[in-house]
Design goal:
Elements: H1 3-29, E1 33-37, E2 40-54, E3 57-61, E4 67-70, E5 77-78, E6 83-88, H2 91-116, H3 124-143, H4 147-167, H5 175-189, E7 197-200, E8 205-208, H6 228-235, E9 248-253, E10 258-264, E11 277-281, E12 289-299, E13 306-312, H7 317-320, E14 324-340, E15 345-346, E16 352-358, E17 361-366, E18 369-373, E19 378-381, E20 397-402
Antiparallel strand pairs: 1-20, 2-10, 2-14, 3-9, 4-6, 5-8, 6-7, 8-9, 10-13, 11-12, 11-14, 12-13, 14-19, 15-16, 16-17, 18-19
Length: 412
């Protein structure tokens, strides 16, 4: 054989051998598939509408000559005749009254601790845990704009820090501090007028410090008969807010039941019916889930749309003043195994499923889809029973990327 040909054949054989060894090394050190551990996930089937709050609202009008200091915050319950606000000659005097309240709280707290000092010690570890929890709660309230709740937590935190000082013996006698606080209180008390005016609530209910002019836009007494055209006109800006009297200082929501009304398109009406109970979210108002009941569904025969009136008896500072809001109705909850679209394959009988790695071998697993999200491109699948041996399970190593997949394939 020609020596040149011999050398070429030897070179080709050496290159082939080198490529084979390199490929085997690649398979050894690099996985031929991308895996993802199967996790449990919860989603909701939702319906979004623009809602209008309808309440039994009574405006409070009071002639005031001075600075109005509110004794309660939005969403607080007030009895008929209960004090809503006091009128002071100036803002400085009103702030002095607020400081007196804060001082009274601290004085009560320290006097209680003074009594505890001789009655034993509280576990320091327990106090530290409570301090950590309150600090996190304060941060959460501040981030979500709940300043009233943050102030309450701050007061509780101050009490805990005082108790902590008592436990570690950094301060066992609060008498000097009490003397200072009482002296400061007496100084502030001298600024407060004895004849300050009290403003009482005309009815029992929830208090709101501002009127928006839409209190009578839809009748609370006739809410069950709200029509699509009536609500559309309000939502599109066709109804102007009423001019509020200059001496209006707020309003009282007289009944504990209030309503949210929204328009639902015809194709979504099958998802909702009178008497059903749901949870809703108002994403731009609060992060809470709010329980509601479908009070009335009024369909417009001309357009096919319907007014859905939701009944609610839950109230908070954030909800008390909302009028127009984006409402997300949580129609149904699905909890199951999270499977992204890129993991889906079809088995021998055209059934949906995924591949999982068991050891270093691929195995096809069936799935039962409970819910599919077209936007997120994923499925929520039913968790199998003990008898469902060929179905995907929680914490399986699911293949989400790979080529040439088949049942029984060896992977590294």
């Amino acid at each position: 054989m020609n020596p040149v040909i011999k050398r070429v054949i030897s070179l080709v054989a050496a290159l082939f051998l080198l490529a084979y060894v390199g490929y085997q090394a690649y398979l050894m050190f690099y996985s031929s598939v991308e895996l993802e551990t199967v996790q449990s996930h919860t989603v909701f089937e939702t319906l979004d509408v623009t809602g209008v709050a309808i309440r039994d609202e009574k405006l409070i009008s009071e002639a005031t000559d001075g600075y109005v200091y509110y004794e309660i915050t939005n969403g607080d319950r007030v009895a008929k005749g209960g004090t809503i606000a006091k009128v002071y000659s100036s803002e400085a005097v009103a702030l002095a009254q607020q400081q007196i309240r804060q001082l009274d709280e601290e004085i009560r707290s320290l006097e209680a601790l003074q009594l505890q000092s001789s009655a034993g010690r509280t576990d320091l570890q327990s106090i530290n845990k409570q301090v950590d929890a309150l600090q996190k709660e304060i941060l959460l309230h501040v981030r979500t704009g709940r300043m009233t709740e943050a102030a309450v937590c701050r007061s509780e935190l101050q009490q805990l820090l005082n108790r902590k000082q008592l436990v570690i013996d950094k301060m066992t006698d609060f008498s000097p501090r009490l003397t200072t606080l009482k002296s400061k209180r007496a100084s502030l008390e001298s600024l407060i007028e004895a004849n300050r005016k009290h403003i009482a609530s005309p009815a029992a209910g929830y208090f709101v410090s501002e009127a928006d002019g839409y209190e009578s836009a839809i009748s609370y007494a006739d809410v069950a008969n709200t029509t699509v055209s009536q609500l559309s006109n309000l939502l599109s800006g066709g109804v102007s807010p009423s001019v509020t009297a200059p001496n209006c200082i707020g309003k009282v929501v007289g009944d504990y039941v209030w309503y949210l009304a929204g328009i639902v398109p015809q194709e979504k009406l099958s998802l909702i019916s009178q008497g059903q109970s749901f949870q809703i979210r108002l994403p731009f108002v609060t992060d809470e889930q709010i329980p509601v009941k479908v009070f009335k569904v009024n369909t417009d025969p001309r357009t096919g749309q319907a007014v859905v009136v939701l009944e609610c008896s839950y109230m908070s500072e954030e909800l008390s003043s909302v009028r127009f809001a984006e409402v997300r109705i949580l129609l149904k909850e699905y909890t199951g195994l999270y499977v992204p679209d890129r993991a889906l394959h079809f088995g021998k009988n055209n059934e949906s499923g995924v591949y999982v790695r068991v050891g270093n071998v691929l195995s096809f697993r069936n799935i039962r889809v409970l819910y599919y999200d077209e936007t997120g491109h994923y499925s929520i699948c039913e968790a199998p029973t003990e008898e469902d041996r060929d179905y995907l399970r929680l914490y399986d190593d699911m293949v989400v990327e790979g080529k040439g997949l088949y049942d029984g394939k060896v992977v590294r």
